[in-house]
Amino acid sequence: ILNVEQSPQSLHVQEGDSTNFTCSFPSSNFYALHWYRWETAKSPEALFVMTLNGDEKKKGRISATLNTKEGYSYLYIKGSQPEDSATYLCAFGFYNQGGKLIFGQGTELSVKP
Amino acid sequence: KAGVTQTPRYLIKTRGQQVTLSCSPISGHRSVSWYQQTPGQGLQFLFEYFSETQRNKGNFPGRFSGRQFSNSRSEMNVSTLELGDSALYLCASSLDSRANVYEQYFGPGTRLTVT
Predict the structure, then answer these.
(1) Per residue in B31-84, pLDDT tens?
(2) What are residue A95's phi and psi, to 5 degrees?
(3) pLDDT value, residue B99
(4) How far is CA A34 from CA A66, A85, B2, B37, in A?
(5) pLDDT of res. A93
(6) Closest residue of A to B55, CA-based?
(7) Helix H or strand E segment including B94
(8) Helix/strand/coil percentages in chain A, nearest 5
(9) Is the CB of residue B33 less than 8 Å from the CB of residue B100?
(10) Per residue in A13-46, pLDDT tens?
């Protein structure tokens, strides 16, 4: 059974705090690692898709890194804002498996003003 | 560009019945994946269709089936509904055949309640 593990399960921070989450995945048959943000009552929204070891992506205050050899990815949010409150999901894509993604359970972030 | 649409948004069915859910992908997207989300289980992959062919299937019983039409619209069917099938069903579309290296665009989901 292939598992994608995310930690922590939930996080409560104050506005302005920086935070980071971890996603652990199998290092074999790796093809892609996705990060999504899922706000309540909305659809999951793609943040990043990373495919190369050592890859780093950035979008505004959010950035992500990838280590395929050891099987982990970090998502960083700098200066959290209340609008960053959401569940952050990572998903693992297998080599030669089309669009199949295995999702982690997510990290629920709550940012208090 | 219109996003992914799913119909219906909400559905209440009785145990033993069957249900069909519909998903229209973003125009030009040929890959459609279906996921089930239940509390405590997260998003579970059901199956993926590309060019009218099922390309991948998750670990779900045969009561769960799907198909894709020539216009890339997809339907998912669940027969002989069980209480445990109550969930949010999401579909996602992606541009290319190597769909897992492209971001997936999710629809709003269909909330199915089985009583």
Answers:
(1) 999 999 998 788 999 999 998 999 889 999 999 999 999 999 999 999 999 999
(2) -65, 135
(3) 60
(4) 10, 19, 23, 17
(5) 87
(6) A98
(7) strand B87-94
(8) 5, 55, 40
(9) no
(10) 999 999 999 999 988 878 899 999 999 999 999 9
Structure tokens at A94: 């297998």
Tell me the CA distances in angstroms from A42 to A39, A100, B62, one per residue in order. 5, 22, 30
Q: Looking at residues B91-95, what average pLDDT do you find?
A: 92
C-alpha distance from residue A57 to each of A11, A74, A93, B60, B106 (Å): 22, 11, 17, 34, 21
In angstroms, rounded to a whole number, what is the distance separating the alpha carbons of residues B68 and A96? 20
Partners of B50 on chain A (C-beta within 8 Å) are 98-99
User: So what's the pLDDT on residue A26?
Assistant: 86
Does the beta-carbon distance from B101 to A105 stay under 8 Å? no
**Which residue from A minimizes the CA distance to B47?**
A100
Which residue's entry shows tokens 């089985």? B114
